[in-house]
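Q: We require from you a single protein entry containing the residue sequence and its fold in C-alpha cell form, and nothing else.
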Amino acid sequence: MAGTQLARNVVLDGDCIERMASLPEKSVDLIFADPPYNLQLAGELHRPDNSKVDAVDDEWDRFDGFKAYDDFTHAWLKAARRVMKDDAGLWVIGSYHNIYRVGAILQDLGFWILNDVVWRKSNPMPNFKGKRFTNAHETLLWCAKSSESRYTFNYHAMKALNEDLQMRSDWVIPLCTGDERLKNSRGEKVHPTQKPEALLHRVILSSTNPGDVVLDPFFGTGTSGAVAKMLGRSYIGIERDSDYRAAAEKRLSRVRTADAQSLEITGEKRAEPRIPFGWLVERRLLAPGDLVWGPRRRWSAKVRADGTLSSDRAKGSIHKVGAEVQGAPACNGWTFWHIDVEGSLIPIDVLRQKLRAELV
C-alpha cells in the first residue's frame, strides 16, 4: 500500500493477518510473535489436591488439526514477511506443541534462522500427573528475513548485560508472577500466557535500536509494547480480544520512556569514529614535549609534533613505544599511556573520547 503512513504506538483491533495486510510494505524493524501454541488439551487438568489448573483452553488456541494450524501459521508469517524491512528481525516463541511446525514453515518462506533460544523457566509448573518430565522451557526462534539481511544484533550490549560474558542461547528467567502478572477485578489472570518483561527486555535490547518499530501481531496484554516503550522503541500491537486490548492500553499508559542518555547501550568499538593520536596534538589537547606516563609512572615518553612518542628505548606510535618499553609483543597505547592531571594519572583515552564526542 504505497503512500500509507505507518501509525506508531497503537494497539490495533482485529485479525492479525488482515491488519498486517493494511500496514505499509517493509515498514517495521522487528516482529515479536507469541502465536497460539495449539496445545491440543483434552479435558481438565487438576492438581493432587483436586484443584483445577488454570490451563490454556481459550477458543483462540483451538484448531481443527495440524493442517488448519499449519495454514494459519503460513498465512500470518507470510503477512509478517511483507511488512518487515529487508534487514528486519523476527522472533517467534513456542513450545514443543508447535515450534517445530513453525520452524519448518519459516524456512519454507525464506526466513534465515539465526538462533533457537531456550527460555528455561526457573519456576515452571509441575507435571501434576507424573507421566512426563516437567515442561520447564519454551523455545524462541530468532530469524532474519533472508541470509543476506544485515540484521541488528547488539552483541556488546548483551555481553554487558551478562557481566561481560558472551550471552548464551539458554536464558534462565522466571515465569511472570507477582505484581507483574495482570489480574482482573476478580483476582484472575487477565491472560493465561503473559510473558515476563525480562524476556522481552532481552529480545528487544538485543535486536533493535532506539526509534525502531516493534510489531507484535499477537499483542495480548502488551508486554512487548510496554518494554518497547520503556526502551525508546515504537510499538504496534494487533489484538482482537477486547479485554486483552483494554488491559494492554491501561498498562501502556503507565509506562514511561527512559531518557536518551539512559537508553545508550554498549556499542562495538569498530563503529566509533577513528581518532589518530596525532589529532590530540593538532587540537592542543597535548603539546609537543609533553610527557605521558605508563602505569604507576614506571615508564615515560615525550610527545612529538608528528603524533609519535619518543622514549629512551624507542620512537614511534603510542602502541609501538608502549610495547617496546615493556618488552611486550603488543600494547594498546590508548589505555597504557596516561597524562598527569593535578597529580593523578588519567588515560589518554579520555582525550580521545572527548574528540569522539565532538564528531557525533
The radius of gyration is 27 Å. Residues 272-359 form one domain. Residues 66-83 form the longest helix (18 residues).
